[in-house]
Design a protein that fits this description.
With 426 residues, this protein is α/β, with parallel strands linked by helices. It is 32% helix and 27% strand. The protein has two domains: 189 residues, NAD(P)-binding Rossmann-like Domain (Rossmann fold, 3-Layer(aba) Sandwich); 160 residues, Dihydrodipicolinate Reductase, domain 2 (2-Layer Sandwich). The strands form four sheets. It has a nine-stranded mixed sheet. It is globular and about 65 Å long. The structure holds nicotinamide-adenine-dinucleotide. Nicotinamide-adenine-dinucleotide binds next to helix 1, strand 5 and helix 3. The site of nicotinamide-adenine-dinucleotide has 25 residues, from helix 1, strand 5 and helix 3.
Length: 426
């Protein structure tokens, strides 16, 4: 039988209808609404967005009204039990794109309903939460995956290829800087920004890049941050933060990485979301800068506020294709397409009796599986704990991984009493 003649369906649910839905999920679902998804191994798959859940439903209603025939009608659930209702409506996979401290509850419900899960970065904020989600995914025989689209950036793929092929050997140290404008920290995210920091939200892209590209064991995390713009100078809401991670490799040698983030850069800063990294190896240096990737655009009266000066056409751009078609494409959308293909592979790519072996294969993909997100979640949990102690008058704490006292252990200067953030070894 030819797989190509069958049509299967994967109904999708979306939890959270904010900025990232509009940027990446919307174009993905519109594209599959028009074209479906095809692979000769599993044939044609329809991927309708059938249900969405959000706090107020207002953006979902607006989108439904404006989208016309770009998307099929979907059910919109709002309020406290919106995720439960979405799951009861019947979906095969659900994407969670709520603010990062609200991922866990929604993700737990999705997996408990036996539905495949895709969750925005950072997956969750603690290792205990990660353990619970991993256990639920195993119990219900479904996938639990996280979106780190920067791993699909062609530049980062090249970096990893050079490392994997040992053209670049042993990373010694490096830095990454991500600067977002005030319109993000003080405008767009004002509903949930209280008590939050820009590190968890954006540094995590580079924590994952470092973890995935160079491997190794995370040993130590230190961090600090500044306040006074988004919230009070002694409060729990952070304008900017800086963290350092120390890794150790099988050779016994170490590397240190500094990651600086801010969401209070002036709105007219030409970089908009400015990203810069440098990694230094035994035999080389990798320098990457979002502003130097190639394009600086000036349009009178439009850049840099209405239109970005430094446009990342690789992440997600709207294009007039050479053949006349309008499109929206890039690695931010490709990463979602890839996940749905992984679900389709599990469900449709061979006899039902072999589903478990296909599931195991897809779970083995460490770029997006929750099981491979442990060190990234540990770094995020450490960052949050250190900032929390700083806010409570105990700055300069250090978190050690797989310490004699536990898996993730916080030490305060001047105190012999370790605080165990996570007991088991990572
Ligand atoms: N991949 C990226 O580069 C990227 C970029 C931006 C955001 N994100 C991630 O996407 C997630 C969402 O960010 P955003 O910028 O879209 O946020 P946003 O504030 O624009 O939107 C959040 C959405 O979640 C909904 N929501 C909030 N609480 C909810 C709940 N309890 N149940 C159901 N819905 C709820 C809100 O109604 C809203 O629709 C975050 O985890 C963020 O880190 C990723």
């Amino acid at each position: 039988m030819s797989h190509a003649t069958t049509t299967n369906t994967l109904r999708a649910g979306m939890v959270g209808m904010g900025m990232i839905f509009d940027e990446t999920y919307r174009p993905f679902f519109e594209h599959t609404h028009a074209n479906g998804l095809f692979d000769r191994r599993f044939g044609y798959v329809d991927v309708p967005l059938t249900a969405v859940a959000s706090r107020t439903g207002s953006r979902a209603d607006k989108y439904q009204a404006q989208a016309a025939n770009r998307i099929a009608p979907f059910q919109s659930f709002r309020g406290d039990d919106s995720v439960e209702k979405l799951l009861r409506s019947g979906v095969e996979f659900a994407c969670v794109a709520t603010p990062d401290d609200r991922h866990f509850d929604a993700a737990k419900q999705v997996l408990s309903a036996g539905v495949h899960l895709l969750i925005e970065k950072p997956s969750v904020l603690s290792l205990v939460q990660l353990d619970e989600l991993q256990a639920l995914a195993r119990q219900h025989n479904v996938l639990a995956k996280v979106v780190y689209h920067k791993l699909l950036d062609p530049d980062h793929k090249k970096l990893r290829t050079l490392v994997a092929d040992n053209v670049l050997s042993h990373v010694n140290n490096g830095y990454a800087s991500l600067l977002e404008p005030k319109s993000i920290g003080m405008g767009q995210f004002s509903e949930w920004v209280t008590g939050r920091n820009p590190g968890t939200y954006v540094a995590v892209h580079y924590i994952k890049l470092i973890d995935f590209t160079f491997g190794g064991r995370l040993k130590t995390v230190t961090a600090t941050g500044q306040r006074g713009l988004v919230g009070p100078k002694d409060g729990s809401t952070w304008d900017s933060c800086q963290m350092r991670m120390i890794y150790e490799y099988d050779s016994g040698r170490e590397a240190a990485f500094d990651i600086h983030t801010s969401w209070v850069t002036p709105d007219n800063f030409p970089g908009y979301v400015e990203q810069e990294v440098q990694f230094r190896f035994d035999n080389g240096v990798w320098n990457a800068h979002s502003r130097k990737r190639g394009v600086e655009l000036t349009v009178e009266g439009e850049t840099p506020l209405k239109r970005k000066t430094t446009i990342n056409n690789h992440y997600n751009g709207t294009f007039l294709e050479p053949w006349g078609e309008r499109s929206q494409r890039g690695y931010g959308i490709e990463v979602l397409d890839r996940f749905v293909r992984e679900v389709a592979h599990v469900e449709f790519d061979g006899p039902a009796g072999d589903r478990n072996s296909r599931l195991a294969t897809v779970r083995g993909l460490t770029y997006n599986d929750l099981a491979a997100d442990r060190q990234t979640v540990a770094a995020v949990q450490a960052l949050e704990a250190i900032l929390d102690h700083q806010h409570r008058g105990q700055p300069d704490c250090v978190v050690r991984v797989n310490d004699p006292a536990g898996g993730l252990v916080l030490y305060r200067p001047g105190s012999n009493e370790p605080s165990v953030l996570y007991g088991p070894r990572l």
